[in-house]
Amino acid sequence: MRQAFHELSLSTRGRGLYDFTAEVAAWIRQGKYQNGLVTLHLRHTSASLLIQENADPDVRVDLENFFKRLVPDGDRLFIHTCEGADDMPAHIRTALTTVNLSLPLHQGRLALGTWQGIYLWEHRQAPHTRQVVLHFIGE
Amino acid sequence: MRQAFHELSLSTRGRGLYDFTAEVAAWIRQGKYQNGLVTLHLRHTSASLLIQENADPDVRVDLENFFKRLVPDGDRLFIHTCEGADDMPAHIRTALTTVNLSLPLHQGRLALGTWQGIYLWEHRQAPHTRQVVLHFIGE
Amino acid sequence: MRQAFHELSLSTRGRGLYDFTAEVAAWIRQGKYQNGLVTLHLRHTSASLLIQENADPDVRVDLENFFKRLVPDGDRLFIHTCEGADDMPAHIRTALTTVNLSLPLHQGRLALGTWQGIYLWEHRQAPHTRQVVLHFIGE
User: Residue A80 — left, alpha, or beta (φ > 0 → left; ψ -120 to 50 → alpha)?
Assistant: First the structure.
């Protein structure tokens, strides 16, 4: 039984969903990890980790539009507005989703379904660099 | 320290919450797993895993009705409608909840509280078969 | 490779966010855990675990107010009202967030970002005592 740690640095071009399944898979391949548990932790409170459909890009458009309507930028309800109209909505969108994921790895393959991709969901309007910690325990 | 993998195939009769705590517990019992971490991963993007109240069935009725109101089927906002009026709402309901869970196992018992059950939440109207990958690491 | 289990008992003064990062860190320090995975599981269905901003307390005020508006106490939609107007909203708020978290531990430090704290989010109006199971696997 062994462990491994890694940190991915992902650049976003502002709000939206960014598929980084390939980066996670590349790290697993390079370490020759076979069977175990892979945990991803995003070190931010205004972006999320999300497992979602990787086929039709319209799904991402609709997800974005739904969350935009559910948690409107510039809502008068908010008092924490120091970084702008999208500041507090970004925190709420993060609370409504999650910042960590745990995926079984079996015979060198993540347990993802055929249509599942791993996304970084940037909730801020401006481009950001986001850190994701990867952890593996297994064989 | 050892590991084990399993895949449950769960049949749904359409939208609703399905308790499968017993299936998970049976797998743990059969493998005689005592202390460790149990991870569940659902391989779909239109259904969720949820830990919720297992006592009053009204809780499930209210959960369903709340989500029906929050993410209405056939909402004009959506462009991804290829599989019908409940297609995109199913993806959003999944994004608002989760597809993986990690539960400590201590002395052969999952760390669930007295009123907690493990549910598969089917978000599509039609019956589906859903795959849940189970992983154990421990002793 | 070793494991450890612990149970924290957290007292709340009613609805709100309670930072208990220090209690988790103290348990890690006392056990001299260095590298591994720390899992937290909350044994309730009317409170959540949340990783959120630990700087400006206004973020917590806004989160609370947003959820109050999204899932109103006493909503006529609900039939499960046996414990009062905040009973069913508490279950829904829990479904919209989560009850378990998994955090990598590297060189004795949790993988939390600078602005991330671990919160117990009490959703009931009355004070409660909440149990959080902690699990460590690693070295």
Answer: beta
- Beta strand segments in chain C, E: 2-11, 16-19, 36-42, 47-53, 100-106, 109-110, 116-122, 129-138
Rounded distance between C-alpha atoms, residue B118 and residue B116, angstroms:
7
CB contact under 8 A, A111 and B1: no
Residue A34 CA to residue A107 CA, distance in Å, equals 5
**A53 touches A63 (CB < 8 A):** no
- Residue whose structure tokens are 């709100």: C16
| Candidates C51, C114, C119, partner chain A, best to mutate (most A CBs within 10 A) | C51
- For the entire predicted model, the pTM comes to 0.98
**Coil vs helix vs strand at A26:** helix
Q: Give pLDDT, residue A102.
A: 98
The single-letter DSSP state of residue B84 is -
Residue with tokens 């957290």: C10
The first and second tokens of residue C113, run together, are 């970002």
Question: Chain A within 8 Å of C75 (Cβ-Cβ)?
Answer: no
Determine the Cα–Cα distance for residues B86 and B21; give it in Å rounded to an integer. 27
Closest CA to B48 of B75, B15, B79: B15
The residue type of B126 is A
Query: Helix crossing, A58-70 with B87-96: angle to 10°?
Result: 60
Q: Are A49 and A100 in contact (CB under 8 A)?
A: yes
For B30-57, the pLDDT digits (tens) are 999 999 999 999 999 999 999 999 999 9
Burial state string for A19-44 with b = 16 or more CB within 10 A and e = fewer than 16: ebeebbbebbeeeebebbbbbbbbbb
> How open is the CA angle C128-C113-B51, to the nearest 5 degrees?
40
Tell me what ipTM this predicted complex has: 0.97
- Contact: B51, C135; criterion CB under 8 Å: no
